[in-house]
TrEMBL record:
The keyword Hydrolase applies. InterPro entries: HAD-like_sf, HAD-SF_hydro_IIA, HAD_sf. It comes from Microbacterium allomyrinae. This is HAD family hydrolase. Keywords: Carbohydrate metabolism, Hydrolase, Magnesium, Metal-binding. Mg(2+) binds at residues 13, 15, 209. Divalent metal ions. Mg(2+) is the most effective. Belongs to the HAD-like hydrolase superfamily.
Length: 269
């Protein structure tokens, strides 16, 4: 049975694990520094397909966390990676933002509104009736239906917002076609992340705050799973699921080496 000492590479969720409402989780900055100092390969994962890795790196930096863009893996990048493996140089009609369109362009895809190979739906704050109608018609005509992530809602300062899963549900109702979802909880996203850093499931850990996405996908991808209680899941929710993470920790601070933890505590004092 694997233990944490067997882990040589890490994948970690972002929201609820490293940051919470744009505020760093205590211990997150020190853990990232510890990985850099030790030369530990890692990737920060997010189902958010709105932003490019460069955008997200800047947002994290503004929150006090240093994560280079090459260490960020989004559902948009995973989707582009998957589509490139399926149909190199294909075409797509895209409902989404720069994070998704940039990833698809860099993967060699052509954006089109004429007989696309794929309809790809990601996160956006600008869903339009016209675009959704086009997507429905393209899928009806034979385009393959892809979604970056299944999240039905997203947070905002004013409350919940409809997200990718809500829009794909509308399209599914109109077409009778379910999308293939690349992002979490599809372990496909983790496998593409492992390939990105040349890691193997046998020696890689996954840190997340959600049982229904991070942990189940980590288990299905064969990773060592760590649930932290700084985000969505709490001990009561864990009991609702038929599977268990390998570890349950209060926060990422519990992953710090003792000397790093003592240094951080001294800085706080």
């Amino acid at each position: 049975m694997r233990t944490r000492s067997d882990i040589e590479c890490w994948l970690t969720d972002m929201d609820g694990v490293l940051v919470h409402e744009n505020t760093p989780v205590p211990g997150a900055s020190a853990l990232l520094q510890q990985w850099r100092d030790q030369g530990t390969p890692f990737l920060v994962l997010t189902n958010n397909s709105i932003f490019t890795p460069r955008d997200l790196s800047a947002r994290l930096r503004a929150s006090g966390l240093t994560v280079p863009e090459e260490s960020i893996w989004t559902s948009a990048l995973a989707t582009a990676d998957f589509l490139r493996s399926q149909m190199p140089g294909g075409t797509a009609f895209v409902i989404g933002e720069a994070g998704l369109t940039t990833a698809l362009h860099e993967a060699g895809f052509i954006m089109t509104e004429t007989d696309p190979d794929y309809v790809v739906v990601g996160e956006t704050r600008n869903y339009s009736f016209e675009a959704i109608t086009k997507a429905i018609r393209f899928i009806g005509a034979g385009a393959r239906f892809i979604a970056t992530n299944p999240d039905a809602t997203g947070p905002s300062t004013d409350g919940l917002l409809p997200a990718t899963g809500a829009i794909t549900a509308l399209i599914t109702k109109a077409t009778g076609m379910e999308p293939y979802v690349v992002g979490k909880p599809n372990p496909m996203m983790f496998r593409s992340a492992l390939n990105r850093i040349g890691a193997h499931s046998e020696n890689t850990g996954m840190i997340g705050d959600r049982m229904d996405t991070d942990i189940v996908a980590g288990i299905e991808a064969g990773l060592h799973t760590v649930l932290v209680l700084t985000g969505i899941s709490d001990p009561a929710e864990i009991e609702r699921f038929p599977f268990r993470p390998d570890e349950v920790l209060d926060s990422v601070a519990d992953l710090l080496a003792r000397e790093v933890l003592e240094s951080e505590e001294a800085d706080i004092l």
